[in-house]
Amino acid sequence: MTESSSAHPAHDVQAHDVPWRDGSRPLRVLHLYRRFHPDYTGDGIYYTRLIPEMARLAVAGEILVYETKPDHDAATVEHEGVPVHYLANAMGRASIPALLGWLARHLHRYDVIHLHSHVDRLFLSTLFARLLGRRVLFSCTLNDSPTELLSDYRPSYRRLAALLMRSIGTFVVISPQLMRLARQSTAARRLRFIPQGVRLDRPPVSAAERLAARRLLGLEPDDFIVLNVGSVSRRKNVAFLVEVMAQMDDPRARLIVLGPVLEEDYAEEIRAAASRLGSRVTLAGFRDDPTEYYRAADAFAFASTAEGFPNVFLEAMACNLPIVTRFLPGLSDYIVDHGRSGFLAQSARDFAAALKALQQDPAMAAGFGLAGRRFAERNLELQKVAAAYSQLYREEKSRLPEPSSAFPEFSLRSAGDVRGAPASIGLREFRLPTSQRPLLQVVIDTEADFDWDKGTATDTGRVSSITGLLSGFDLFRSHGVRPALVLDYPVATQEPSVAIIRSLAAEGCELGVHLHGWSTPPEVELRDDWHSFSGNLGPALERRKLEALTDRVEALLGHRPRLFKSGRYGLGPSTIAALQEMRFEIDLSICPAYDFSGMGGPDFSAFSAHPGWFGREGGLLSLPTTAGWLGGLRQEAARLRPLVASPVGRALQLDRLSARANLLYPIRLSPEGNDLAAMKALTRQLHADGVRVFTLSLHSPTFQPGNTAYTRSAEDVRALLSRIDGYLAFFRSEMGGAFSTPAGIRAAILGSTAAMPAAMERVPA
């Protein structure tokens, strides 16, 4: 809706001070924008809908626009009933002195200042507002988390900017991705997650209503209408959607793009590409109200390269449209449930395949659309969002904001939140009785071979190294050891590896799942360190990957696997919840003493090598990787590790220095990278500390030369096998231990009277 058709001068701005129902005046909030275009920008449209909704909760909102110069001279207009003040018209110019002057005149009328843009780099206006006792909030919507704001300052000024930024009491983040970025520089108590919302006062669109909308718009009833709403600009990536349509050979498939042209040269490129598709692509321009197009479409397609929280997703879900979108980190994987309410896709080929699937199966498309609508009803209803803001605006200044429970399916905890005491993720570690005979399980991460030094991007699913696994098994057989094999997706699905795994399973090796998110479908996320930890994915996306891998291992095994290990030890709170819901019995993901937070992963430095229960006893059992601290200062590890992990410690590389000096360093119980003496020392030490369950772990590619840094040559492989042989003999003879399997250890824990939960000794937090 254009401003000229919907706005009119509002000379009496005091009209919004009318008393509330109980006689008290409403809470008054001033929203400050740098630019404000309520006719076509997402934030402008959204807040002119949200502010009236908050008015029902006794929160009166007005908007102050810093930079935009409207096509009229009025200092204040009303847009959709919301007062909008234009600084350039009111004060003659847009500048910080003009802003301070306007606030000096009008700030007494407001209780809260809600910033939507970082207009004042000196923070003079926020300091002035705080000086007068006003609360100040800042909404992070796109590339403007506090971390990103600070990065815009020169390094020498960032400490001062961070200090001045404390004049902003609370940062409101609208997506999990922005929350992740904000946490890098800002204490959690100053952050609040409130997503965008949508009105859901109309019921889902019926098939008859879709046909009626098509008749109204002059669209053919049998066409497959793909809708995209947004500006025609490079960031919105409309040209990609034209490429997608070129791969859909059905002439009935049509793309309609609604939105203003912001980059004319880009629009010309799109028109040239679209001309080769006849009338199948339409740049329909801006529409005041696109609702009928949503109601007429079959699917909503979105290819933007960067977003805060697309309001168009909400509009599509309100009209029960299935969504096909490119992967937007910490956003689309939380909103679109792949294979349930839409599809996540990266390439044009995958995008086209997803749209074809929806076109060929209208019943599936309808089910997806309704699933998205139900998700919006549970999490994104505009009244819930308005209530969350109302609560936030009314909080006392001394009260710490707490995450809202109004948006239950937005889990903001990731792999990086696995830190501190084990209880932080619901894990209760326990000690087995010291009379318990030591038990050893061997766990082999059975996975595709790739260049570890160059990262997960080099994982092409090659499983040629699996043959090396067979050469090492004679050694295990000679000791009566049956290693547990946890399988990644390539190993579980390619015939050469499947045949080998089946033969080893027939010998009694237990099989489990080893979730490498980057090689497990749907493969839509970025291949980087952050996303290599599956606990950092949206809960729905991680669950789909876990289901896909579990199904393939079940097909190979003949029954449901109960054993899980997260790739790169990257589990998160959502991982644990999914494992419990899918009735896994054993998790092998925890790696005590190790800190992967530098890459965005878990920090297990405060975890022990003892087993533990997630939740109730008899449910999901944690059998961690055996790892611990060695060195002269190992007894001081709990006190020293925060210093080593601190920014100063990282800068001074205290971890490397302490390891070289043999003072303090963590090691895994593994023949990879450790000599036999270190493996024995760790075992003796942990046994003295009361540990009675041990895990010897290694990777299947290590059994073949040239795949990992541990075995570059055949001689390295022979040395590896020699260390394994020596350790197994040591564990049985010197330690008096017995060899077992994950299921065997779980049964021993549950079956031993001395080790029943009531008699277990809890490991102190």
TrEMBL record:
GO BP terms in the entry: carbohydrate metabolic process
Protein name as annotated: Glycosyltransferase involved in cell wall bisynthesis
SUPFAM superfamilies in the record: Glycoside hydrolase/deacetylase, UDP-Glycosyltransferase/glycogen phosphorylase
Domain Glycosyltransferase subfamily 4-like N-terminal residue range list: 44-197
Gene3D superfamilies: Glycogen Phosphorylase B, Glycoside hydrolase/deacetylase
Pfam families: Glyco_trans_1_4, Glyco_trans_4_4
Gene Ontology MF term list: hexosyltransferase activity
Keywords noted in UniProt: Transferase
